[in-house]
From TrEMBL, chain A:
<protein>
    <recommendedName>
        <fullName>Glutamyl-tRNA(Gln) amidotransferase subunit A</fullName>
        <ecNumber>6.3.5.7</ecNumber>
    </recommendedName>
</protein>
<comment type="subunit">
    <text>Heterotrimer of A, B and C subunits.</text>
</comment>
<keyword id="KW-0067">ATP-binding</keyword>
<feature type="active site" description="Charge relay system">
    <location>
        <position position="80"/>
    </location>
</feature>
<feature type="active site" description="Charge relay system">
    <location>
        <position position="155"/>
    </location>
</feature>
<feature type="domain" description="Amidase">
    <location>
        <begin position="25"/>
        <end position="469"/>
    </location>
</feature>
<comment type="function">
    <text>Allows the formation of correctly charged Gln-tRNA(Gln) through the transamidation of misacylated Glu-tRNA(Gln) in organisms which lack glutaminyl-tRNA synthetase. The reaction takes place in the presence of glutamine and ATP through an activated gamma-phospho-Glu-tRNA(Gln).</text>
</comment>
<dbReference type="InterPro" id="IPR020556">
    <property type="entry name" value="Amidase_CS"/>
</dbReference>
<dbReference type="InterPro" id="IPR023631">
    <property type="entry name" value="Amidase_dom"/>
</dbReference>
TrEMBL record, chain B:
<keyword id="KW-0436">Ligase</keyword>
<dbReference type="InterPro" id="IPR017958">
    <property type="entry name" value="Gln-tRNA_amidoTrfase_suB_CS"/>
</dbReference>
<dbReference type="InterPro" id="IPR004413">
    <property type="entry name" value="GatB"/>
</dbReference>
<dbReference type="InterPro" id="IPR006075">
    <property type="entry name" value="Asn/Gln-tRNA_Trfase_suB/E_cat"/>
</dbReference>
<dbReference type="Pfam" id="PF02637">
    <property type="entry name" value="GatB_Yqey"/>
</dbReference>
<keyword id="KW-0067">ATP-binding</keyword>
<feature type="domain" description="Asn/Gln amidotransferase">
    <location>
        <begin position="347"/>
        <end position="494"/>
    </location>
</feature>
<dbReference type="Pfam" id="PF02934">
    <property type="entry name" value="GatB_N"/>
</dbReference>
<comment type="similarity">
    <text>Belongs to the GatB/GatE family. GatB subfamily.</text>
</comment>
Amino acid sequence: MDDLIRLSVAELGRRMAAGELTSEELTRACLARIEALNPTLNVFLHVDAEGALAAARAVDARRAAGEELGPLAGVPIGVKDNYCTTDMPTTCGSRMLQGWVPPYDATVVKRLREAGLVIVGKTNMDEFAMGSSTETSFYGPTRNPWDTDRIPGGSGGGSAAAVASFMVPLAVGSDTGGSIRQPGAVTGTVGVKPTYGGVSRYGLVAMASSLDQPGPCTRSTEDAALLQAVIGGYDFHDSASLDVPVPDLVAAAQADDLSGVRIGVVTEFQGEGYEPGVLERFAEAVELLRAAGAEIFEVSCPAFTYALPAYYLIQPAELSSNLARFDGMRYGLRAGDDGTHSAEQVMNLSREEGFGREAKRRIIIGTYALSAGYYDAYYGSAQKVRTLIQADFTKAFETVDVLISPTTPTVAFRIGERMSDPMSMYLADLCTIPSNMAGNASASFPCGLSDGLPVGLQVMAPPMADERLYRVGGVLERALESAWGHPLLNELPTIDTQAVTA
Amino acid sequence: MSELADYDDLLTRYEPALGLEVHVELNTATKMFCGCANEFGGEPNTHTCPVCLGLPGSLPVINGKAVESAIRIGLALNCSIASWCRMARKNYFYPDMTKNFQTSQYDEPIAFDGYVDLDVDGETYRVEVERAHMEEDAGKATHVGGSGRITGADYSLIDYNRAGVPLIEIVTKPILGTGDKAPQVARAYVAHLRELVKALGVSDARMEQGSLRCDANISLAPIGADRLGTRTETKNVNSLRSVETAISYEMTRQAAILDDGGRIKQETRHFHEADGTTSPGRSKEEAEDYRYFAEPDLMPIAPSAEWVEELRATLPEPPAERRRRLQAAWGFSDIDFGAIVNSGALTLVEETVAAGATPAAARKWWVTELARRANEAGVEIDALDITPAQVAGVQALVDEGRVNDKLARQVIDGVLAGEGEPAEVVEKRGLAVVSDTGALSAAVDDVIAKNPDVAAKIRDGKVAAAGALIGQVMKAMRGQADAARVRELILEKLA
C-alpha cells in the first residue's frame, strides 16, 4: 500500500492499463492516506469519498469494457478550492462561500472528468488566493508535511501539501503571483504556471484576472507534463485562451540533455535577503545544468526589482473589483438578515463577517489604487512597470532560451511568523511575480534541502514556450535524483500525527 | 417664487444647452458576453447562465455581432471607428447588477466624433456626437412593499433575463444654439436615431419596451454667458413626446429657480408621463467614483480597416439623402415632411405608399389618426397593431367609395382591435356606405314628409336648406349613406 501511493503517475497509468491495478484500489489507498493525515495537515477542506469511488469504478468499468483511455484515467487528483465543482462546495478558503456548491464545473474540472481523473476533494488555500502561507484560510492553516510547525506555501499550500504528503499523486492549483510555484518550492514538489492563456480560467474564481493562471502541482516533471496536457489548450469560454497548437510537453519532460540550451541566471534574484542554504542549492543546480550541456549566462532584468510593489497595486485593484460581487445577496454567506436590517446593512454585515483581514486589507488597497485622483499615481504607474518587466523578459529571451532563479528567497517559515507583518509575507513571492506580470511560462522544481527543508529552482520561459520548462526541469530532476539516489520526496520525514502544536 | 417660468419669456433671458444620452438595445440573437438568448420578456430568470448571472469563476466572451452593430451605428452617425479599443469595468453598486461592476467602455469607445444633421421647422441643426460605446444592460428589479423604491421595500424580486443584453450608448456633445427649438431638436434627434437603428436592422428601437431610451441633460445659462449652467439629467424618457415635454418642463422649472436667484442642483431626475413633470432622483453632489480600469477578462477589440469598410458598404441610404428623395417624390413641404419624421412614421408612410396609397393619404392616416391613437395608448407609432398594407387598404376602401372618412376611422378601430383586414371589418361591422337608391329613396321620402317647412323652402329654390335634410338622412342611415347621392335625391324629389 505504501509503495502504491509513491508511484509516479506514468507508472500508475501503466499498471492500470495493464490490468495490474484498478482505479478503485488506488483511490481507496489515497482516501486511507487522507483519512490518516488530514486531521494533522488540514490539506483537504472537503473529501468526497463516495463520489471519488464511484468515479473510480466508472473508469474501471470502461477499461474492463475495452475502452481506450488516456494515460491519467483513474488517477486520483485534488483540486484547489477555488475551482467550481458541481458535486462539491467551492469556498475559496473563505467564510463568504462556506458550503456554496456552484451550478457549473470549471473548464479544468470538466477536462479532468472527461479524461477520467478521479477528483477526491478540494484543497485548502489562502482566502480567495490571497497569501503566501495558506494561513489566511478561514478553515485554518495547512501544515507543511516536512515540518508540521511550518507553512506549506501559499496560496495553494493545500494542493502542494496533498501531493508532497502522498495523499494524491496529482493536484491542480492557480498561480497569480506564485501560488503554484512558491508552495511547490517549500514542499519539494513540481509546480507549473503555464503561459497566461494556456489553461482556461473559466470557472476558476478570479483573484486578479490579468494574472491568474491554472496549473499542475505534482511530484515529478513528467507528471506535470501529463497533467498540463489534459487541462490545457484552447477554451472558447476564456477570451484570453490561446488558440495555438500545444507542443508535446511529455516528450520535452523526457529529453535527456540540454546541449544547445542557453540559460540565463537572473542577477537581481540573489544576494542579500536570500538564505545561504537556498543560494547553495541553487548554485549546485546551476552546475548540474551546465554539466547537462546548457550554456549559462548572467542576465540582468532591472525592472524585476519593481515587480513586487507594482504587483501589490495591480493585484489588489483587480481583486477589489472581482470581489465586489460578494454582497451576501445571491449566494454564499448572508449575515444580519433578521428583518431588523436594511439591504445595505445586510451587505455590510455579510462582508464584515465573510471576509478575513487580508481580504479586507487588499480590497481597501485596490479600491484606493483605482480611485479618481490616485489612479495615475498608483494603478497607472504599476501598469507602466508591468510594461518594463515585459520588456526585460523580451530582451532577455533574445539572448537566452530560459531564465532561472531560486523560486523563493527562503525555505518554509514557521506558522504565525509573518502573519502580523504583511510586507515580509509578500516577500515570499518576490521571484515568482515577474512571470505573472509578463504572462510568460514558469515553473518551480525541487533542487535539494537546506536544514532539512526543500529548496526550489525556478525556470522561466517565453510565452507559449512551456516545453522549455519541462525540458530543463526533467533533465535537472534526473541529474539530482541520480546524485541523491532517489527522488527528494523520499527524504520526507514520517509525519508525526501527534506533534502538531496549535 | 413661481414654480415654473413662462416658456417664451424665459428664452429672452436664458440660453439652453442640451446633452442627450441614448441607449439602444441591440437585437443580436445572444447576449453581449454569453450565449443566452437576447429576448424581451420571457419567464423571469429563464435566459440566464453563470456568465450573465456573474457567478464566481464565470468569464465574459464578447459577442462579435454586437461589435459589428456598434461599428455600423458609429459609421451611420458619421463617427470615426477606433482601430483598437478595450472594454472597461465601471465599478459601482446597483441592486440588479450581477457583478457589482458594469462592463462598458470608458476612454476607448469604439466610435467617436460624429454628427447628425436635423431639419426642424425648415432650419437645419447639427448635433455633434461625442461617442458611441458598447456596454451591457443590468437586470430588472421590482421592489415590493413601501414606495416601490428599494429603500423601505419589504423585499425585492430580480429578473436577470435582461442582464448582459448588449447596449450601445450614444452621447452627444453639448447641443447649443437651439434656443426655443431645444425640445423639438431633442425630439427630432431621438426620432432620427430610432429611424436610423431600425433602418440598420440592429435594434427594434421600441421606446415603450425600453429598447431605446433617452437620458436628457439640460442646463440654462444667462444669454451671453461664457460657460454652461448647472445641469440636471432626466433619466429614462421613453417616448418621443416625452423627450419634448421633459425638456420644456425642465427649462421652465430651472428658469423659475434662476429667476429667483436660486441655484440648480446637479442631480438626476425622474420623468412622469402622466403629468409631464420631473422630480428629483439621486443627488450627484458627491460625484460617483466609478474606478474605471481596462476589463482584464476581455481581449482588446481591433477591427481591421477592411472590415470597417465592408460594413460601411452595407449601410442603408443616409437619412439626408433619403429625405431628399422622398420629399421630392412626395412633393411635401418641409413642415409636412418634418411632421412625418417627428411622428416616427417615415418608414411606415413610405411602406404605405408602396402598398398603393397616395403620399397625401398615407401621411394623413399616420400623422393624424394613428399618431393620436399611439399617443393615447402610450406606445410608439410602430407598435400599433396595424400594418402599412392595412392602412393602404383602408384608403382604398375610401377611394372606392365603400366607406367615407368617418367610417374609415371605425374600420381602423376594427383592425386595431384584431377584427381582421379592413374589408373584413367593413363586413363584420356593417360599415359599408349605402348607395342603393331604393333604401336611400325611402329614407329621403321619410325625412321630406317629416319636414314640410324645409321641403317647401327648397321647392322655392332655397337649395342651401337641403343641408339640414341631408344631415337627418345621414343620421337615420347611421352615417352610412352616400351624402352626394342623398343630396341628388332630395333635389330631384323637390324639383
